[in-house]
């Protein structure tokens, strides 16, 4: 019997809100004829990202929520990969989207050390998205530094929103952290030739060298935490847009990332609510499922934030609405 070729794996990493899901969406659209499996790992308890992946077959997506695969849910990760291959016999490519605060080291390592994974997969490379607007405030984070250090391709994203001085600073810092990775600059993570980087498992030697560097250590997450708030009913869209902007700007130092799905009055499409470092964006998703309970779900990731306080803010706002 012919030996089955190993499935190439690409790890997509990058700090909170840098553009990972946007990039993967572009990639899936450009490679619609390739059978791609997708692992979505979210730090929060609910997966918003898998719902933001456009027109993709749910059987090819695995959600691993409520923890980071680089530490707490590692066994689940290895078994999930094996299960995905069992279920999808003809898988041609695997993409893993890490959480924004993942240390990619322990995610890369099993592909060289776990015999079950080594038999099935071959690592193509790690791609790191960097948010050029919020970089200066984020770079102190150990996780982001490691994401940059361990990557083979760095996508400097949101360049249209950053001025030249900022961009020069970001480029310099990136090259100080990683001299070997290729650097490309994008808006909305659009990379024409993205598939070229994914489909060639060419850089394994580089990986092994990087993994042997002395900085490599146990994963560590500064003191990030995440929580979800849920409430029912419809929201007035113009009023919410205004209030959400205000809310995200006053908490921008503590709340790095907000993402959620809400139901707007007189709009059959789900509202997708996002904020990265206080920069907000509200867009329309798919038509809400009439058979699912009508619920608004919003996930927060940050440092030193109180769920009680945020819930109170939302309650006050909702009371004003009615
Ligand atoms: N202005 C601007 N916004 C962008 C760009 N790229 C992505 N975004 C927005 O930034 C937000 C975060 O993008 P995502 O692709 O969800 O980022 P992510 O890295 O997957 O986020 P997490 O998984 O939560 O860490 C969304 O509102 C995107 O629409 C860009 O180039 N410019």
Automatic annotation (TrEMBL):
GO CC annotations on file: cytoplasm
Catalytic activity: GTP + H2O = GDP + phosphate + H(+)
GO molecular function, one term: hydrolase activity
Keyword list, A-Z: Chaperone, Hydrolase, Nucleotide-binding
CobW C-terminal domain: residues covered: 224-318
Any matching Pfam family: cobW
Domain of life the protein comes from: Bacteria
Function: Zinc chaperone that directly transfers zinc cofactor to target proteins, thereby activating them. Zinc is transferred from the CXCC motif in the GTPase domain to the zinc binding site in target proteins in a process requiring GTP hydrolysis.
Similarity comment text for this entry: Belongs to the SIMIBI class G3E GTPase family. ZNG1 subfamily.
Listed name of the protein: Metal chaperone
Organism listed in the record: Aquipluma nitroreducens
